ATP-binding cassette domain-containing protein
Amino acid sequence: MRLRGVGRRYRLGGPWVLRGVDADLPEAAVLRVEGTNGSGKSTLLRLLAGIDAPSSGRITGRPRRTAYVPERFPAALPFSAAGYLTHQARARGLRGGAAARAAGEWLERFGAGAYARTPMADLSKGSSQKVAVAQALLAEPRLLVLDEAWTGLDREARDELDRAVAERVADAGTVVYVDHDPRRLADSVHTVLRVADGRVAAAAGAAAADSGAGDSGAAAGAASGPTARVTVTGPPGAALPVGLPGAPRGEPGLDGSVRLTVPAAHSDALLRALLAARPPWHIRTVEPPTAPEADSAEGGHRP
């Protein structure tokens, strides 16, 4: 997806919120948008998602399956939580029972299954936000745009959204997000888009600098929370795929294997990415998540 000379203003002759934006959005990548309040971050996200059209310039290559979570979700809708998600699933191509099943599965994933029959207008802010996130993930979008989507979610739901982001990237999707927490997805960011004075500048994020494994920044990220270890064997002479979810830290073994340490939230997506690689990597062992203190006590190794 490409932006060339893109600008946006909200009335003819009005001030430009963004102007002259040139940017490339790669596949299988996470892009973080940064900027001060009022700098145009949300405007950029709405342009990327196709909610707003550019006032100048062109946006090309937007995936057909694009989903968006706005900063403020309109919760007062004439549906139950499950009814709304089922309606959205049908609008995005799912039919019959598949739409209802997808709605139920996503509500359960975000811990909102008990509110399936609750009218949207009666949901708490946190439960409403879970529905907002679920509606964006229903159709497995190739472009996922998140504007403060973690705000209002409980810890379990925030972790689930992290896992869903990793899944989208493992499936060659692109995720663009804004969040007030600078640590959010920090180890997975491929590109940082900084918005200031109506302009957008791009810089490499941790995942791009790391290129997949072995970087001290990735090791620091893995140590900041529970981690999982995966021991894999690849085709003779093959290097690890670039841009693996969670930017795992690799430790070569004497037998030709590689042990990968990754934040636990990204472990499932990492396994899928390795198995989907061409040629695929062989998964030898998967160790359960451990706390950083345990890693330190053991020196980072297990027998």
